[in-house]
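Structure ticket #2291
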Amino acid sequence: MYMDMVHEDISLPCRSSYNIFLHCTTTKQSEQKVVSFDNTPLNILDVKRQIEKRFSIPVCVQVIAYNSCILKDDTILIALRIRDGDTFHVKYLEKGHCSEIVEIIDWMRLVLAGIQLENPSATVDMSWELNNLVTRGINNEMIQSLAFKYFFPWLDPVKYVNKLHFAYHGGVEILMELDGALLQEKWQERHMILQLVESLLLRVIWNLSETFPLRRAITKNKGIERCIQSMLHYKLEEGSRFEYVVSNHSFEGVLRDTIVGGLGVLCNLSELPECHLEIASNEDALEQMTNIGASPYLPIDCSHHVVTIFLCLAHTPGTHEKISKPRYLTKLLDALSIERDLDADQLDIDRIPDCSHLLLRYFVLLFLAQVALASPQCIPTDLHLTIIDEMMLLLRFTCYEIIRRGELTQNYVWCTYIPYIKLAYIPSTPHINNPACILQVWSLEIIIFALQNMLGRENHREFLVKEGLLDFVTCMPQYVPPSLKSRATNLVQMVASSPDVPEGPPKLLNLVKARLAKMHFGLENVLSMSVSEIVSQAFATNF
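Resolution: structure written out below.
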């Protein structure tokens, strides 16, 4: 229940105090405080600001209630007839580093203003004088603290609150503007300190993009375009040793970190469906990424980022022709067999453990399985047997429990299942004994294997129910080739055993949808149909 009252601007010049009952929803701890005001606050936003100032609880994570009513920020206090000494109940996620983050945002504003003052047209390269102007005002420790102290590690609830606080005060927009201003000058002509600044800014953006609600704010501020530009500061060539990029003993290491930072941000932004076509349409970016992924001289987590991007892009069929060019697929397959430079693996601060090579193979084959099923014409015929051999090896020597443990170690989260479940319902002709059809069967087994891995986590099954896909998993054994029925049945039993999954047979309407999807229209098209359209199509197709 919300209380939303609008009155004239009224402010009473008298001192007032209120009891504040604070409850942290993360730690479940509660405490009672008293907050005093020199002047009676005009609205609830004023109360929140005072709480932020006193207790370092950001405004954006506070929920204030009075007399069991949740109050909006613009609610006028005098309209509530609140008296001195009354109690507000405040729920909040966690406390943060409010004043420190605001100080860093103010510093970024000053640096950005200096750049814009010296270069108001924003179309010419920064001059030598501007380099001096900016570098004199640079405080790398502030950016480093933002990247590694206040925003990292990203699973920490305090860091999550810090990032929301940063975004609430306009930090994302200023950060992206500052990054864009630095990109006006070519990397090679830039002062070394400014190169380091860009690398650190990308690490900040990368950490921000780990928080899903902030990804769209980054994309709205040209996040994809600018990250690709950073990633292309040094164009990697196929077969090159990349010593210039991976050197740890000179500022070239900053260039490597900048390239990897741009790649890391793209990896997170690629999870947004609206970004798929923009990324897939940039051939320079795709070429650079596949060269990075196939390099034995860069950390293996770079290969993980590349494959994750391709895996996410494959969720949108319109990208398949762009991302499935033979040279891209060949490089991704090459990444499975290269021997890594041990020193290169040691470069990354978040080193992936021993399961990294297995996860890399799994993600590459999952990507190839998506393309082979949804757009089989995009897989070159000369790669069919190679891909089949790789899939056979994975399924023969690996179980999904091992994959799941590796993903849990790396905090991988699967938030949607429609891109994978729909592949079992692609209308298809009877299987013929040729490499193309054999590849489709093996690809479908990889998809079911992946679903066994994903849905093996009980909390992930909740997403399945929310997406309305439970009945389509239940129906899957009826529509897969005979050789895959036992694996599909195991998947159904796994899902049905979860206490969070409703018991009972599939609904009649969903049974009809499943058959129409497999026989004629595909699952996504059927899910978008109304009930009347389903009924009419059932009669029209002699269901």
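Closing remark: The chain has 28 helices and six strands.
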